[in-house]
């Protein structure tokens, strides 16, 4: 495998992967199939196990259970330096004592590829850094270093390229620009990219497929529009964009839709857009799908109506405004509305009705947790538990 | 940027301290040019003879060569052993960690007389003849801990991601060590080696207990102190000092210009 | 530059969790085996020697393994003045070295921060003595302090010294020599910790209405504590066992003999091994106890 370039990207398959660190389970029973040639994003909050997943694939960490296959071949027990995988590290990890060119040629030279310097120079052209070939990494700006890190990995034409928050250290403008560049480089070289990020916007703009990860598990996987349009869990609904969520009991089942009783108000949900169809369920709608009305709109079969509520706060964001509407019995709802002429009517304190098309409602598989969107893992009990685990281990070591 | 007047007293005091620190060095260097007779205590006139004919005094020169031999050999061994320990301490988990730290700290917390007497007792009990080898053994022993301290800081500032990147880029363990780890640790290793060389070269107390009939430069000075130290000893000490000074200066100047160049390029 | 080793500016990277590996013992074993063989075993040998009994055989004086703890009583009784003097000298010298070394370290670490050329120059001067024979430096002081030398001459001129007064071989000259010898050992660790000190702490303290003196005592000193502790240990420990400065041939006289001188003469001259060994063990025990109390009290255990 080593010694020749990958013809094209290869499939990556993780089967039943889990990873336990002393006193902490970072990955739990992870199954994942990433098709060849795709731009795949692994999205999740910090600490959810994204880096660990990449390190397992790169061979820098060994899985506690499970198998890793690349192009159908089991590589679980293959050493890191024999895997057809390259990584763009979160910190770039450029070798400070080598020039840019030496950095880029490092992998080729280790594989004894004859025209290493030529190939490296070519890739430096691709990232528009051939003029910096003889500089040291410390003489480059953050964005340039990032491109060197990319070039150093891409030049090896790995079957799989892993990018660990490669844009995390760049400022916003540069990040946007690099997102486009990365995307075009990927289509140019045709490799499989696995891009890790905690920035949902970045994942949405760049990836063909996104896997949303939470607490060491994949919550949902799909194209950006699928995930946004039809989130399946509370976590996804809140992490990828914003959502208005309601919980209640299913009171009526029709052929194509069912009705949920939310504090006395009926909310209709299309059956095929819901994960659960009976008992207590959580349903939701995206803020930009909501319409505000000064007067109660006419009831219609395809419309969900809530209200009246009172606008508690408005924040102006240029093209649109965000309204917070307090609906008695339901709570605060968020509405995004374009700034048109009529919006002048909607000031704080104004009484309004809210409506949306039933087809925009989605039904989730789980219920919101009582407090907060994230479970805190830095409270005293879990810290104490970690400390104890450390202590036990230390004691074991001393014996 | 300007120095503030409130800082002047500190600067003056420090200047005086530095001058005071240099007095015996300058004194000794000056007396290396003294037209000395049997002793080298009073000034009798300027001459270069002592410098030109150092090795006419075979005793000084022999002692000096012994000292260099001992310092080179024990520096190499201590640097190798100490560097390995430093890497292990920073990078790995292992049993008996605190016992290991204690074993490394103890030689630095033990006065040299005790180290010297202890080794001498052991050599005596084992019936080992004292000589160059026993001096080297002794010096290596007390240098290891200093090497560990010096290299540890460097290992701790080495980002493990660099080595991982090396492995990720098809570097075998050997390739990663020789092309990444070692070059990046080198400044720390060199500093540790220099320190260990200086400690070994100038050591008297431990040497005195474990050298038998073999003379080293400090031992020669100690013995000669009773009857008058010849000017050739001043020459050797001054020569070593100048060589070290030139080495340090050139490293500093080289570093200064490199930093300047770097600043220019990145500006 | 050798002591640049003590002042790596690079902050340690965020410690990656350490791993277990077969490499660890492979890396540790040679060095630790060496230290065990040539440091630990000799200490045990020394301990055994310190309990040896003297016998007079056909070949003259012989030492046999025994449990003669009276050696300690005898050694301590006989050499109590030397032991006391050793600690008096070394503690006094450590205090002086601290008073002299701290300003130097502060100059390099704080005042000259924005003047790298000057800073390197001062650092080089502080390190310079390491590259110059310690014995010859001590001898130079001896000659400068000689009765016909410049220092005594000046003191005579000023009328501070009478005809019978002298410098060499006094408590003063020995403490002076010890202080001088260990200044770099004191200065460098303090410099390292001051160099890492974030100036913004001082600015913050100033911002919070601290007077410069208050800031120094409440902020600078505590933050440089690890350096102070290493510096004082690197001075006190070797000073307490030193026998060059206090020896007759250098800055001392029989009346300034320290424990190191006694150990040397018992071991190398009169070959009274058990007494020399008992003194060594006693010295080491006192130092270990003192050092561990000191480290505990100054709250810098992780120095080890
Ligand atoms: N070597 C390790 N030992 C113990 N815990 C670790 C180790 N590496 C990572 N973790 C823990 O595993 C979790 C996931 O880490 P990581 O994969 O780095 O998250 P992410 O990249 O998504 O921010 C974190 O809680 C982290 O503290
Ligand atoms: Mg991460």
CATH class of one domain in chain B: Mainly Alpha
Number of E-type strands of chain B? 1
* Radius of gyration of chain B (Å): 23 Å
Bound molecules: adenosine-5'-diphosphate, magnesium ion
Oligomer: heterotrimer
Binned, the helix content of chain B reads: over 70%
Shape of chain C: globular
Total DSSP E strands of chain C: 3
CATH architecture of one domain in chain B: Orthogonal Bundle
Low-confidence sequence ranges of chain B = none
Q: SSE order of chain C in H/E notation?
A: EHEEHHHHHHHHHH
What is the CA-CA span between the terminal residues of chain B? 20 Å
Percent of residues in helices of chain C comes to 55-70%
Order of helices and strands of chain B: HHHEHHHHHHHH
Question: Largest sheet of chain C, described in full?
Answer: 2 strands, antiparallel
Give Rg of chain C in angstroms.
Answer: 23 Å
Can you give the mean pLDDT of chain C? 87
The top level CATH class name of one domain in chain C: Mainly Alpha
CATH superfamily of one domain in chain C: MetI-like
Remind me, CATH topology of one domain in chain C? MetI-like fold
Which key phrases capture this entry?
heterotrimer; A: 399 residues; alpha+beta; Rossmann fold; OB fold (Dihydrolipoamide Acetyltransferase, E2P); 2 domains; 6-stranded mixed beta sheet; 5-stranded antiparallel beta sheet; 25% helix; B: 267 residues; mainly alpha; MetI-like fold; 11 helices; binds adenosine-5'-diphosphate; binds magnesium ion
What would you say this structure looks like, in words?
The complex is a heterotrimer of chains A (399), B (267) and C (304). By secondary structure, chain A is an alpha+beta fold. Chain A has helices spanning 50-58, 100-110, 116-126, 142-154, 172-189, 200-206, 224-229, 234-239, 380-398; strands spanning 12-21, 24-34, 39-43, 65-70, 73-74, 85-88, 160-164, 192-197, 209-214, 217-222, 244-253, 257-262, 265-270, 280-285, 291-293, 303-316, 320-327, 331-338, 351-357, 362-363. A six-stranded mixed sheet of chain A has the order 6-7-8-3-9-10, sandwiched between helices. In chain A, a hairpin with a 2-residue loop joins strand 1 (12-21) and strand 2 (24-34). Chain B is an all-alpha fold. Helices cover 75% and strands 1% of the residues of chain B. Chain B contains eleven helices and one strand. The model of chain B has no long low-confidence stretch (mean pLDDT 90). In chain C, helix 2 (70-111) runs antiparallel to helix 3, helix 2 (70-111) packs across helix 6 and helix 2 (70-111) packs across helix 9. Chain C is mostly helical and 304 residues long. The longest helix of chain C has 42 residues, at 70-111. Chain C has a domain at 91-271: MetI-like (MetI-like fold), CATH 1.10.3720. Helices cover 66% and strands 4% of the residues of chain C. Strand 1 (92-93) of chain B pairs parallel with strand 1 (19-20) of chain C. Bound molecules: adenosine-5'-diphosphate (ADP) and magnesium ion. Magnesium ion binds at residues 50-51, 90, 165 of chain A.
């Amino acid at each position: 495998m080593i010694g020749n370039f990958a013809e094209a990207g290869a499939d990556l398959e993780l089967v039943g992967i889990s990873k336990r660190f002393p006193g902490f389970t970072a990955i739990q029973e992870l199954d994942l199939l990433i098709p060849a040639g795709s731009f795949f994003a692994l999205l999740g909050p910090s600490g959810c196990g994204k880096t660990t997943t990449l390190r397992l694939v790169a061979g820098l960490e060994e899985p506690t259970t499970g198998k890793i296959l690349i192009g159908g071949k089991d590589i679980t027990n293959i050493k890191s330096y024999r895997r057809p995988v390259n990584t763009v590290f979160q910190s770039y990890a450029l070798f400070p004592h080598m020039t840019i060119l030496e950095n880029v040629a490092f992998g080729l030279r280790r594989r004894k590829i004859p025209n290493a310097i030529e190939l490296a120079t070519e890739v430096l052209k691709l990232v528009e850094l051939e003029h910096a070939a003889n500089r040291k990494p410390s003489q480059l700006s953050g964005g340039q270093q990032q491109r060197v890190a990319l070039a150093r990995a891409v030049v090896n034409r790995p079957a799989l390229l892993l990018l660990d928050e490669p844009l995390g250290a760049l400022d916003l403008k540069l990040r946007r620009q690099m997102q486009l560049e990365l995307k075009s480089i990927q289509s140019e070289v045709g490799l499989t990219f696995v891009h890790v990020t905690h920035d949902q916007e970045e994942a949405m703009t760049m990836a063909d497929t996104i896997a949303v990860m939470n607490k060491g598990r994949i919550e949902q996987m799909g194209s950006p529009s699928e995930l946004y349009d039809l989130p399946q869990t509370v976590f996804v609904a809140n992490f990828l964009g914003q959502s208005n969520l309601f919980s209640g009991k299913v009171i009526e089942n029709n052929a194509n839709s069912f009705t949920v009783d939310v504090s006395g108000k009926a909310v209709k949900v299309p059956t095929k857009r819901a994960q659960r169809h009976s008992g207590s369920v959580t349903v939701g709608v995206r803020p930009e799908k909501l319409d505000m009305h000064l007067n109660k709109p006419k009831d219609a079969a395809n419309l969900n109506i809530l209200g009246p509520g009172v606008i508690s706060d408005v924040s102006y964001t240029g093209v649109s405004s965000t309204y917070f509407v307090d609906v008695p019995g339901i709570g605060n709802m968020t509405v995004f509305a374009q700034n048109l002429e009529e919006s002048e009517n909607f000031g704080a304190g104004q009484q309004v009705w809210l409506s949306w098309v039933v087809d925009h409602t989605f039904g989730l598989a789980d219920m919101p947790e009582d407090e907060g969107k994230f479970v805190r893992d830095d409270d005293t009990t879990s810290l104490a538990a970690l400390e104890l685990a450390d202590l036990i281990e230390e004691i074991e070591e001393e014996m | 940027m300007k120095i503030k007047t409130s800082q002047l007293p500190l600067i003056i005091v420090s200047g005086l301290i530095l001058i005071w620190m240099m007095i015996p060095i300058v004194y000794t260097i000056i007396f290396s040019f003294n037209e000395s007779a049997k002793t080298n205590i009073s000034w009798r006139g300027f001459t270069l003879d002592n410098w030109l004919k150092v090795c006419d005094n075979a005793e000084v020169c022999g002692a000096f060569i012994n000292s260099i031999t001992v310092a080179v050999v024990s520096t190499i061994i201590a640097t190798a052993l100490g560097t390995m320990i430093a890497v292990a301490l920073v990078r790995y988990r292992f049993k008996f960690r605190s016992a290991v730290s204690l074993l490394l700290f103890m030689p630095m917390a033990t006065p040299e007389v005790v180290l010297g007497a202890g080794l001498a007792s052991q050599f005596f009990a084992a019936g080992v003849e004292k000589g160059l080898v026993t001096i080297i053994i002794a010096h290596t022993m007390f240098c290891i801990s200093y090497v560990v301290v010096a290299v540890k800081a460097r290992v701790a500032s080495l980002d493990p991601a660099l080595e991982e990147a090396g492995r990720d880029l098809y570097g075998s363990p050997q390739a990663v060590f020789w092309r990444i780890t070692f070059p990046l640790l080198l400044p720390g290793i060199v500093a540790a080696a220099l320190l260990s060389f200086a400690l070994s070269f100038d050591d008297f107390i431990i040497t005195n207990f474990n050298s038998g009939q073999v003379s080293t430069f400090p031992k020669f000075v100690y013995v000669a102190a009773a009857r008058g130290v010849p000017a050739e000893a001043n020459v050797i000490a001054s020569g070593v000092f100048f060589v070290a000074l030139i080495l340090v200066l050139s490293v500093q100047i080289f570093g200064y210009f490199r930093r300047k160049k770097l600043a220019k390029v990145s500006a | 530059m050798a002591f640049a080793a003590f002042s790596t500016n690079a902050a340690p990277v965020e410690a990656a969790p350490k791993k277990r590996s077969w490499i660890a013992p492979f890396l540790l074993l040679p060095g630790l085996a060496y230290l065990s063989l040539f440091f630990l075993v000799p200490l045990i040998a020394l301990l055994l020697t310190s309990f040896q009994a003297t016998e007079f055989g056909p070949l003259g004086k012989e030492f046999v393994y025994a449990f003669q703890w009276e050696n300690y009583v005898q050694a301590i009784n006989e050499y109590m003045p030397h032991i006391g003097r050793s600690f008096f000298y070394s503690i006094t010298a450590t205090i002086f070295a601290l008073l002299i070394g701290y300003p130097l370290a502060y100059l390099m670490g704080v005042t000259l921060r924005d003047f790298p050329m000057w800073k390197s120059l001062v650092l080089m001067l502080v390190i310079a003595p390491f590259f110059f024979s310690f014995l010859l430096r001590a001898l130079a002081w001896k000659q400068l302090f000689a009765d016909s030398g410049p220092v005594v001459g000046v003191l005579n001129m000023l009328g501070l010294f009478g005809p019978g007064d002298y410098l060499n071989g006094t408590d003063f000259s020995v403490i002076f020599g010890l202080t001088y010898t260990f200044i770099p050992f004191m200065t460098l660790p303090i410099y390292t910790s001051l160099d890492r000190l974030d100036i913004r702490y001082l600015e913050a303290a100033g911002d919070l209405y601290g007077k410069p003196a208050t800031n120094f005592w409440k902020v600078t000193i505590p933050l440089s504590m690890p350096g102070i502790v290493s510096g004082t240990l690197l001075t006190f420990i070797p000073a307490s066992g030193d026998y060059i400065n206090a020896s007759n041939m250098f800055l001392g006289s029989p009346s300034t003999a320290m424990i190191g001188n006694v150990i040397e003469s018992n071991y190398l001259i009169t070959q009274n091994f058990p007494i020399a060994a008992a003194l060594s063990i006693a010295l080491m025990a006192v130092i270990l106890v003192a050092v561990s109390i000191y480290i505990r009290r100054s709250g810098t255990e992780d120095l080890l």
